[in-house]
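Structure tokens please, single chain.
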Amino acid sequence: MQFQVLKRAGVASALALTLAGAGCANMSDTDRRVGTGIGIGAVTGALVTGGKVGGAAVGAAIGGASGWLYDREKKRRYYYDRYGRRVYR
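Here you go.
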């Protein structure tokens, strides 16, 4: 009985991981960085405030802004050559 529960949990987690990875396939670099910032900020805000909804929302807003600023800084460090390849300075 316990093995069946473990097996179902493994299948469910593999499916969730696959769907999560496929969901980000068409995202731009900016979208991924802002989304990652929102996720990390929401979790951090919830942990710091003890699971309050307001803390998670504030953390998500701060994380999204931080992800956008990080993306802007990363884009200053590269350019595309005449063949369309990304070149870092």
